[in-house]
Amino acid sequence: MSEKFSATLRLTDLNDFIAPSQDCIVSLKKFKPKSEKPENQEKFNVFSKTTSPTEAVKISLKDCLACSGCITSAETVMLEKQSLDEFLSQLDSDKAVIVSLSPQSRASLAAYFDLSPAQVFRKLTAMFKSIGVKAVYDTSCSRDLTLVEVCNEFISRYRQRQLNSGKVRGQELPMISSACPGWICYAEKTLGSYILPYISSVKSPQQAIGAAIKHHLSQKIGVLPDKVYHVTVMPCYDKKLEAARDDFVFSTGGEGENDHDASGMKIAEVDSVLTSGEVLDLIHSKSIDFKALAEAPLDKMLTNVDEDGNLYGVSGGSGGYAETVFQHAAKTLFGKEIEGPLNFKTVRNSDFREVTLEVEGTEVLKFALCYGFRNLQNIVRKIKIGKCDYHFLEVMACPSGCLNGGGQIKPKTGQSAKDLIQRLEDVYMQDVSIANPLKNPIVKSLYDEWLEEPGSEKAKRYIHTEYHPMVKSIASELINW
Amino acid sequence: MDFPEGKLELREMQRLEGHSDRVWSLAWNPASGTAGVPAMLASCSGDKTARIWQQGPSGSFDCMAVLEDTHTRTVRSCAWSPCGKLLATASFDATTAIWEQIGSDFECVSTLEGHENEVKCVSWNASGSLIATCGRDKSVWIWEMQSGKEFECVSVLQGHTQDVKMVQWHPFIDVLVSVSYDNTIKVWAEDGDDDWHCVQTIGEACSGHSSTVWALSFNEGGDRMVTCSDDLTLKIWNTSGNPSESTGDGYGPWKHVHTLSGSHDRTIFSVNWSREGVIASGAADDAICLFVESKEKMIDEPFYTKLMKKEKAHAMDVNSVQWNPKNPRVLASGSDDGIIKVWELAERSG
């Protein structure tokens, strides 16, 4: 598997020679096993060897998601080429191409070109429009929408647990953030059903902006959803897998939209995902002098930009989930106004930090940021044995979180990975003012015009999702006798 | 210590029978075998159990405990903590169990979960504060013991491209070595910033092995190690730096000094270096070989020679050979035939 995917996702890669059921069924790589001691056959060797494919087979991302196997590096190369080529080819089609840019990708390009996030945003807008893109939006905007939903979900889980105290312990808390696709993939494929109820049902900012564009904005501007090609720019390769999930594809046709209507046309919330690095490749391939590019005004409909052209959003390079929910819960549940930025204390290492709220000597809120596989691993074990006393966990598969995503532009020659992370953290909020998501006027109008209110049926339908434990094949169960 | 070639033999002292499937790995309890503490040997097997064997007053070993009903698949590897009070067992069921001796019983006091699938090996560091595990998911995990015998993962290392067969800590500094189906040997050390990194990879291009590396062992001084492989060779490695003075970057890289070939004609699965400097190897040719450093200094580089080959040491593959750390003339071996043998390295009689 390519190192570009998060380490957490890579760990689920199985490509040994042992159980045929676990071999990649559609591998592009021709793996020649050495003759070796049958270490894993044990006593029940009931499997006949499958014949290895001799011709290259095309794998779709869906095949990979449906399989408990691996993604080969060869396939990743194919995938990359697909994303950029397909994006460019769509510009010549009859579809309206819309780009949604993540703030982490903005920071990555800003650090690379020594510009500010707002400058990068305006220059990218100019560049994309010059090649035929109709609009460029901002996933900080949809992230504020998801944050409002996450706050709402947390309050209801917390209250539910208070109601249930004394009864059988529920699976309400800790609530675990759901924005990281590497973590979701690991939870579904490896951890299985016990962990899934703890994960917030709110979609990631990528999928939320996809839903907003395909379900709401397209109607508003009078374009059919299937005539919109929506591309996101992300700091993360795993986001490509997220965009391909069945949960994020819907059908049109007949009366209104029906998720289960097989007769209609299949429409994805996000048609393809480019990484920060791929956007840089695009800039290079078109020989664009990016720093010299004129700046274009931003598209305000789904972008966190105020009347004066200033950007705003939550701080926190991984989305500010813990911070936003903590402040909201302190105020809503305990009447405490807590000014940001919160003082997270390092627990084990800089990727595991916590913040607590005490009321009359009792710890009523205990939140943690938990980044990178080793920390994730420890917290998951604690949940499994019932020894996790956190109320909320902001979990990200990558060490240092999303600013350090696998899709970000690599360090320049002579620049250490650590230096780059520091630079990205510095530049991330450089000309972006901190703003409370609950007061975001665009989010407010999305509720007014479309979703009604946080946690409503419509919000659940469009902004929430479900998780599915990966069912192991019967053959792989057999070997566990 | 003098080891005259042709004058020594491996004398079979005892056969330990009890496992109902192949014996994968053996471990001598480092706190046993001295000052009134009877020698203790742990073994683990494809029968999903580990067994504890204790030496009685007569000198023979008896099974004192069967560690069962915890692992649901093969127990592939076992290792004692340096204090000898805890035993770690690594299993194909993807878990590593920690057992504590309570009276004459062994209780599972903790389980380390995290590997995606089969765990192949477990090793304690010199102080007993860290455990390393490795497995088929190509990863090496480092765990730290917390109060109350809880373990926290401190690092997940993903440098290998295939199944990792064995991990072994250096005898007195916190440097870890892993060997793999990808034919490489990797050396791991802490980077001073609370995470671990690969500091050296020894592949075929650096006089390394040309097929799966199955095992490794350090000499008593910690300045040499030996690896064994499916390529039918054993390789001796030397570190120029003094690994005991490892502060910051004071770690010296390992260099190839000698290759022993032609002794086994099937895969070499196990290798172990005795306190007295005798290297034992066990292989799929059912034989055990012993090697020592040659006294004749014809060249500057260290040179190792075969002391003897014990043909048909077992009826099937020899999976594990382990010298007793307290009595370096006593060797234990475990095999696919399900039997453990205790051998004495002795002067040939008659």
TrEMBL record, chain A:
Record carries keyword Cell membrane: no
Residues annotated as domain Iron hydrogenase small subunit: 414-471
One Pfam family recorded for the sequence: Fe_hyd_SSU
Keyword Acyltransferase among record annotations: no
Keywords: 4Fe-4S, Iron, Iron-sulfur, Metal-binding
Matches recorded under InterPro entries: Cytosolic_Fe-S_CAF, Fe_hydrogenase, Fe_hydrogenase_lsu_C, Fe_hydrogenase_ssu
Molecular functions (GO terms): 4 iron, 4 sulfur cluster binding; metal ion binding
Similarity field: Belongs to the NARF family.
Protein name, as recorded: Iron hydrogenase small subunit domain-containing protein
Organism, scientific name: Dioscorea zingiberensis
TrEMBL record, chain B:
Record's keyword terms, sorted: Repeat, WD repeat
Any one GO biological process: iron-sulfur cluster assembly
Coiled coil: none
WD repeats: 16-54, 68-100, 112-153, 157-188, 206-247, 311-350
Database matches in InterPro entries: CIAO1/Cia1, WD40/YVTN_repeat-like_dom_sf, WD40_PAC1, WD40_repeat_CS, WD40_repeat_dom_sf, WD40_rpt
CDD domains assigned to the protein according to its UniProt record, in alphabetical order: WD40
GO CC term (a single one): cytosolic [4Fe-4S] assembly targeting complex
Pfam families recorded: WD40 (PF00400)
Family: Belongs to the WD repeat CIA1 family.
HAMAP family named in the record: ciao1 (MF_03037)
Function summary: Essential component of the cytosolic iron-sulfur (Fe/S) protein assembly machinery. Required for the maturation of extramitochondrial Fe/S proteins.
Name of the protein in question: Probable cytosolic iron-sulfur protein assembly protein CIAO1 homolog
